[in-house]
Amino acid sequence: MSAASQTFAPGWRRAAKSSTRQASGRFSSIRFVFRVGFALLCSLVSVSAHANLTCEVASVNKAFSAGTISVPVNAPVGATVSTLAPAPFQLTCNFPASGSSDTSATLYSDFGTTSALAAGFSDVYQTPIPGLGVRYTFNSSECAATDVTLVNGSARLTCPFSGPLNGPIMSANVTVTSTLVVTGAIAPGASTLSTMPKVTITYRTSDGGSSSWRKNPLYSGAASGVLTHATCSVNQANVAVIMPTADTRAFSSGVGSVAAPQPFSLLLSCSTGAKVLLTLTDSVNPANRGTALQLRSDSTAQGIGVQILKSDGTPVAFGPDSAAPGNINQWTVDDSPNGSLQIPLTARYVRTGAVSAGSVNALATFTMSYQ
Length: 371
Fold this sequence. Notes:
By secondary structure, the protein is mostly beta strands.
């Protein structure tokens, strides 16, 4: 037993030492593999975090310019008041020489606003004018975007780009269309737009990981424009004024002589709350700022024009077809009543040159404004 024990013990010690060396060798091998794996992981993270596609944006930071907008009488909620012309801007990108070898990537352009939604809408945002909202819609053939609308404060355009390293700037052309919408009761008269919902732009690229970059805003929030809410509607869309026959001898006193006055009226239905202003425009010659309508081409008379007189007998000077307050040759008619408003006018011939007999045809339009 004792001899056997002495024989067994040295064998066990040798086996233990051998086992220790084997374990040490395995530990060293594992540690080496771990280091290689860590180095590879760092390298992969570095590549994925490097954004090869570099993008900017052009023709943004826009001020909202609405001009003069007229809201019809009793316009219902949801009615479109005005759709502005599409406003262009560009998403510009390239692949810089310092980037990876990839030359294809996607730009994600996120548009957003923190402005409050109009009650009952998911895509119309409140403006400073109570009862008036705005909707923003995007279109781009390069980004395969058709009527992409800013819904619940956000919209995304997905735009692919491909090109050589250190290549030229590539552009995706985009337009934004702003639509003004009735969202509730609008006060009668004129209101000024001085601010509008700001629209931001944030970029992210498919080769840039989760990183994102805020760009200049699409709309800065600045605005200009005048909204007039009509308190009157026209009872008769077209008013035909039949002029009496006049003898050429009635104009013998020379240029400026007049004849054959014919009274007529414009009849409106109104509600109270605003002052009514009126502009007459020469439809044949809209640039006419005189007091005689130019005859239509189907007229055969020569040297004759048509004057329109106000109720006080003074000739109307014609102005641009605009409802803007202070429009050229606009005049105040009256306060809007709760009911019918009759505007008495008179038409008459006026000599403008050498007179010859024939037919006389002229055409005018009128535009109302409210204060």
